[in-house]
Amino acid sequence: MAARLVAVEHAPYLAHALFTVNPVAADGLGTLAVDRGWRLYVDPVTFGGWGPQLGGGVLVHEVGHLVRVHAERADALGADYDHDRWNLATDAALNDDLLEAGIALPGGVLTPTGLGLEDGGIEEVYYAQMATRQQCSNGGTADSTSVDGCGSGAGGPVASWELAADDQTAPGLGHADANLTRRRVAQAAREYAASHSRGTLPAGWQRWAEATLAGPQVPWRKVLASAVRRAIAHAAGCGDYTYKRPGRRRIPRVVTPAMQRPLLTVVVVVDTSGSMGQSELDSAIAEIQGVIRAAGLAPQGVLVLACDAEVGDATRVRRANEVRLVGGGGTDMRVGIAAAEAARPRPDVLVVLTDGYTPWPERRGRAHLVIAIIGDPSAARNTPDWATTVVVPAV
Length: 395
Prior knowledge:
Blueprint: H1 2-10, H2 15-18, E1 22-25, E2 32-34, E3 39-42, H3 44-67, H4 70-75, H5 83-100, H6 123-129, H7 175-195, H8 203-213, H9 220-236, E4 240-246, E5 257-260, E6 266-271, H10 278-295, E7 302-307, E8 311-317, H11 333-341, E9 349-354, E10 368-374, E11 388-392
Parallel strand pairs: 1-3, 6-7, 6-9, 9-10, 10-11
Antiparallel strand pairs: 2-3, 4-5, 7-8
Helix pairs in contact: 1-3, 3-5, 5-6, 6-10, 7-8, 9-10
């Protein structure tokens, strides 16, 4: 109770969530953790050693996993997502906000700086940027001795010490009640930001609150991946006959051709103009990995062109963290699209990641064009009607 009061003093907008979680004693756990039913597992010895001040900070951290929907966001990454890397990414994002708010935490907690990442990022971007980092291989966090991380409520697997979902000794919170709690917290965070000086509410919490209160959003990650897959499937279906090798059909004194399926080529053009802020570029980089995965092009990679008013660097990449974006001038994606169409081998699918403040080609090119508008949805109204357009919210 004392730690809860300290937590409310530091983060009053989390009060409803802090008093909603159901604490469960977990002897020998060595830390705190949460499950998807909003149960808070507490090791009495470890928690008592921290005292109310540090304990209050860790409470805010664990409740943050639940409020910021880390379990559901992990599900959106796909069934084969890396639990350990996701736990590192979410811990770093939460601790970054807590330290910014001046909340005390135990020594050696995980931070973006400790992972070699920039402060102020979001969980999905950290997860993508850490894909090949050495830190992801140990599966632990600096402030936890549990190999299970922060529990299933943070996006980890269901741990052996978690109660069953229907266990009534410590009833869990239902999905509807959890969403209602999140909306109450989001509203409280918005009111807190409005009544205090700018910057008092950590950026990560403000970003989450505004996104939560904005209402249901189009699942743009699935839409973008689906658009790329459809374009690739269309190109893959455009096979033709070839006499480079004989066909399987045997006709006396007749040489029959075989079918040849084209080797698919995908080019990504990234808008690096001055109107593309850091958050937009972060979103663009994160989506390149999705394009590579959707296309199944990891062996040969994709060609990435940086473009503002002219085409900059061209790099063939197999992972998103290999992308290097430079630019900052005006905006004319027609130049980038023309350069991509002229590339050899010629692309079958062309993906443009831009904020949309650019002129567009008047005629359809050879490649199937997929446009991802990052940020302002209204910019999607200006894209060519023969292109596939997806709106991607900036991080």
